[in-house]
Amino acid sequence: MAKLTYWCAPCLDDSSVYNIRTKTKKEAQAIIDSGVYGSNYGAIQKVEVRYKDAFDLVRMAMGEGSILEPS
């Protein structure tokens, strides 16, 4: 089983499609600090997704409920 790890800062005043997602926590913090996307984001949290293969990952990402992220 494979694992995908990324960092997510949830958008507090709009849809989760506007969450900041990056490879590193430092990168997410830099985006928040820049203010380019506004300033209403929650705490940066680590997200780990375990999947069997690429098809399984796509199914989880696009399926009902999607991949659970911080809210």
Put the structure in a nutshell:
The protein is an alpha+beta fold and 71 residues long. The chain has one domain (2-55). The protein is built from two helices and three strands.
Offer a few descriptive terms.
71 residues; 2 helices; alpha+beta
Strand order of the largest sheet: 2-1-3
The protein's oligomeric status is single chain
* End-to-end distance: 26 Å
Fraction in helix: 25-40%
> Low-confidence segments, ≥5 residues, pLDDT <50?
none
Tally of structural domains: 1
Proportion of beta-strand residues: 25-35%
Q: Could you describe the 3D structure shown?
A:
It is built from 2 helices and 3 strands. With 71 residues, it is of the alpha+beta class. It has one domain. Strands 2-1-3 form a 3-stranded antiparallel sheet, with helices on both faces. It is globular and about 35 Å long. The chain starts with a strand and ends in a 9-residue tail after the last helix. The mean pLDDT is 91.
How are the elements arranged and paired?
Elements: E1 2-9, E2 20-22, H1 25-34, E3 45-51, H2 54-62
Antiparallel strand pairs: 1-2, 1-3
